[in-house]
Design brief:
Layout: H1 7-22, H2 26-30, H3 35-43, H4 91-96, H5 116-127, E1 146-147, E2 153-157, H6 162-167, H7 174-185, E3 194-197, H8 211-228, E4 232-236, H9 238-245, H10 251-254, E5 259-261, E6 264-269, H11 272-277, H12 282-296
Parallel strand pairs: 2-3, 2-4, 4-6
Antiparallel strand pairs: 1-3, 5-6
Helix pairs in contact: 1-7, 5-8
The structure holds iron/sulfur cluster.
């Protein structure tokens, strides 16, 4: 007999079904999810978009020369909170506003896999009750990162939102649910990856971190990367791409290819919060994730 689903689980499952169906990956949710649970979800009346009802998606821009799609911005991270923010600005503007970006420091020495948890804890201890930049003033939690210290795949976002600040964990709001779905579409589980951000304290109002804030905090991120040594890093959004690569470029010019970064392959894609705002870009994000899968040697799932 099928176990009852609570409403939160049902909503999360329905969201996952919609995401996979949007990508035509129907097999994916049929595989991990018990058919009886699916039947229960459907009998509970939780709407799931049928593939035929999904509007056609625009063609993915595969080359830097293609017209730049609308790109995420400072306020895009507002989707971390329940209330969408109206002050959406083009990402290009957000990038040009960044006046100075520090070059990434030298790569640290390798840490043995069995020592990585302790090495990450040491960074947590060094961060302490950090007041190195102004973001400490309004934070509730320092959101260090979460995941497998030996992960082959790392996701790097911009900074914590309201849900993350409240829970002390990265990507736990709506954007986090979408990221979970993206990871599931890759055939992985969230706990098999490592997830962190450029800044560890929530920028007030979910604004883009100022250069001095990102430059002050990002050395901790580089140390996390050097400890985990992931095979592939996915930069979620322009802020992560900018501060990881140490260069200002529109997202359109960075997506669709593999960047060499600190011994890892780095792929740039849209921030999940932006994808919540503009779901038409999910297919382009999926194309980016497939590049990451190829780097990891993962097989692309069958499309329906
Ligand atoms: S964002 Fe980083 S540098 Fe700034 S206070 Fe928080 S932990 Fe410290």
């Amino acid at each position: 007999m099928a176990r009852a689903l609570d409403s939160a689980t049902r909503d999360a499952l329905a969201e996952r079904l919609r995401f996979y169906r949007e990508l035509g990956l129907v097999d994916l949710y049929r595989r991990p999810v018990n058919e009886a649970l699916l039947a229960q979800l459907e009998s509970a009346g939780t709407a799931v978009v049928e593939p035929a009802s999904i509007p056609p998606q625009p063609q993915a821009a595969q080359t830097p020369a293609a017209p730049a799609p609308p790109v995420e911005a400072a306020s895009e991270l507002a989707s971390h909170s329940a209330t969408p923010q109206p002050n959406f600005i083009p990402e290009e503007s957000a990038i040009s506003a960044r006046k100075s970006i520090s070059a990434p420091p030298q790569i640290g020495s390798a840490v043995a896999p069995e020592d990585r948890s302790a090495a990450l804890l040491q960074i947590v201890e060094e961060i302490g009750d950090c007041k190195r930049c102004p973001l400490h003033k309004e934070r509730h939690s320092i959101v260090f990162g979460q995941g497998d210290p030996n992960a082959r795949l790392m996701f790097v976002g911009e900074g914590p939102g309201a849900d993350e600040d409240a829970q002390g964990l990265p990507f736990v709001g709506r954007a986090g649910q979408l990221l979970n779905n993206m990871i599931g579409a890759m055939g992985l589980k969230r706990e098999e990856t490592y997830i962190c951000n450029v800044v560890k304290c929530r920028p007030p109002g979910n604004r883009t971190p100022e250069p001095d804030e990102a430059n002050t905090c990002s050395p901790f991120l580089f140390r996390q990367i050097d400890v985990v040594r992931p095979q592939v890093i996915v930069a979620l959004g322009a802020t992560a791409a900018t501060y990881l690569l140490g260069q200002r470029q529109p997202l359109a010019g960075l997506r669709g290819r593999v960047h060499a970064f600190r011994g890892s392959s780095l792929i740039v894609t849209y921030h999940p919060a932006y994808l919540l705002r503009d779901p038409r870009q999910k297919k382009e994000a999926w194309a980016d994730l497939q590049i990451a899968m190829k780097e990891l040697g993962l097989k692309a799932p069958q499309r329906s």
